[in-house]
Amino acid sequence: MDQNFAGFQLMRFESECSEVILGVDGGTTSTVCVCMPLFPFSDHLPDPLPVLGRAAAGCSNYNSVGEVAARDTLATVMEEAISKSGVKKSAVRAVCLGVSGVNHPKDEERVFNWMRDIFPAHVKIYVHNDAVAALASGTMGKLLGCVLIAGTGSISFGFTEDGREARAAGAGPVLGDWGSGYGIAAWGLTAVVRAHDGRGPQTMLTSRILDSLGLSSPDELIGWTYADPSWARIAALVPVVVSCAEAGDQVANEILNNAVQELASSVKAVVQRLSLAGEDGKGSFPVVMVGGVLQPNRSWDIGSEVINSVLKTYAGACPIRPKVEPAIGAALVAWNFLLKEIPANGHG
Fold it and tell me: Which of 298, 328, 295 is nearest to 148 (CA)?
């Protein structure tokens, strides 16, 4: 679309906008909020999608940073997005939050209550795991299909048209998200320690990881790791593991192959539990691919390998790499929920 026309469209939305919706993608590494106009309800979304304001902050997973810090991060990022949009908080009609760490109805209730302290009763509030926002970024707000997220953490999450849902993995590093960035890097660090003490084969990972961390000996890895064992800090070593695999290191290749199988098995588990491929297993369904581990700009393409593994079992899997960010997906979920709730001829 012509940029001048797109700019005109955005100005038109801004001038006509009396109500807005917020979409929040709250992850373990960062939290993003977008403020979008409540554009007219129809079968066709505007292109490009108008974003009035966007703000970013740190972690909002209360399992990682605690309830007070998580709540403050969510409140701050929403306030900033509203402020950048040039609208008042009273203009907010609905908020959809996809937040890492929301894994149970009690988690949803906790975050919902935080929002009720911020927004009045007429504002619609929808709370989900951040996987929902990621799925919606590929399906443009429709909760149907499966999403695979593989960044610092990993999770597969699926929805059916009748509202059933299922998840696999996403339980954090202690409980085995081994296909995640953290899992890959932790395997890499473990391989270095095993090679050093004679329990495992020698590997290029030793010199590459030590160089990247400015360390002189594998013995120093213990102090480095436990000085700050945060998930994102460990996961930052994924590119080193990938580069070693691309250089032909057998240990690094095995780590990535194991990660592929972990990620693919989580997708297959969700598809099977929800019968997303139909009774015969041959039906088509979207698989939305999100997260730095799945980015296709490497010769060792983890995302493509995962899809190839899934396709061997479910030939109807249709991979989607989203064109919008998860926060926009969350906002579109709110828009779709409102669309279902309002009378057909108005805003309700």
Answer: 295
